[in-house]
Design brief:
The protein is built from 17 helices and no strands.
Amino acid sequence: MVTAPRLRSDSAAGRWVVATTVLGSAVAMLTATVVNVALPAMADGLDADAAALQWIVNGYLLTLASLILVGGALGDRYGRRRVYRIGVAWFAVASLLCAVAPSAELLVVARVLQGVGGALLTPGSLAIIEASFHPDDRSRAIGAWSGLGGIAGAVGPLVGGLLVDVVSWRAVFLINVPVALAVVVLAGRFVPESRDGAANGPPDIVGALTGAVALGGVTYALIEGSSGGAGGPVVAALAAAVLAAAAFVVTERRVAAPMLPRGIFADRQFGAANLVTFVVYGALGGAFFLVSIHLQVSLGYSPLAAGAAQLPITLLMLVLSSRAGALAHRIGPRRPLTFGPATIAAGLALYATVGAGDRYLTGVLPAVVVFGLGLSLTVAPVTSTALAAADEDHAGAASGVNNAVARAAQLLAVAALPALAGLTGDRLNEADGLADGFPVAMRIAAGCALAGGAIAWLFIRDDVLTERELDSDEPEQHEPDFCCPIDGPVHTGVHHHE
């Protein structure tokens, strides 16, 4: 067993650890925040249709959602610093492959590989901080990591839009390479190694593979079926998804160290919080995928302007997210998780009214602000509720599950929402097609967000955040108030708590 030293946040060693983990997270975060902004340029440069654009987003999400729990387990067993460095290096190589991809098909393959690297580095970032710092300084270190990561999320759309405008969409991937190489060097020099001595046995690779096949099969059927793909392959993909899902359930019941700890969903509050996460993050993932395209194709925004247009969402998150978390702790999460998604739905309904010729201040900005307010009211409470509802021994797994649920919801939404709105083939890249389909897509997403609020009102209890405190003699461990895993202009969500 390797035990990391208990660093102090005001020490030089502590500051280097925070800086290294922030840079590593920023590599993945910047990519996630800029890809949607760059999609129209990719469509032009690679002659990509709607299905190809969906796969460019979903190729990354597929492997990330499927393997993120395994990534955390590998770090626990074989060393968090080691797996983190491997993940960052893998991400850099995959980013280089993305940058030089000569076709949409090869770009999708590179994005799938990039998701593998993301699954290795994402859980390790926060796990390294928690394993390295003294308990008295851990919250301060997490706060610094969270705030600096939030800044990276805020500048991502602007940086991405600038790179697309001035250089090329390929530059949004190339920028990762020097940063990732610096992280690998810094981690080797300044980050202490740590492992979980209780993590025995091999990781649940079979569970990860069957989960990936299940998600991949459904995603393929949704995208290719809506694009007029052959009936045979679509049916075969659905059949494979059903069989893989059944195999996943059997595996998780029998394997010695399952990805999903047995009984983790026994608490109804944990299940309800993850159901809210799935429904709301599905709405967010589908909306973010389409909004950047709509702003550029229908309203004529440049990539830089499209990124800047949504900057108020991230700024609202930075200012209000911690306050929303504190509010949920004081009055209970039920009302924030009801009114937050309802406000998101209102913002999406306003997005549905935005069309060609609308001014930013009177057309786009009201939707952006209302949407951002709803997001700020939702993210921290739903994360805290999911973690508080799980058994304390499963805190790391609970965070990982909530993260994976959010990613899977985004994956399925990006696959399904364009088809439901009629945005297939070339209609996703045409102003006329978007004029018809975009409002429909936003209204569908708004309905999903409203459903998330209704689930919270019916099933979330107000005492879930304080119940563990009353049952425990140990000091409360605060989660970071602003964490970021949504693949869109805001990149918000949950990181692992290993």
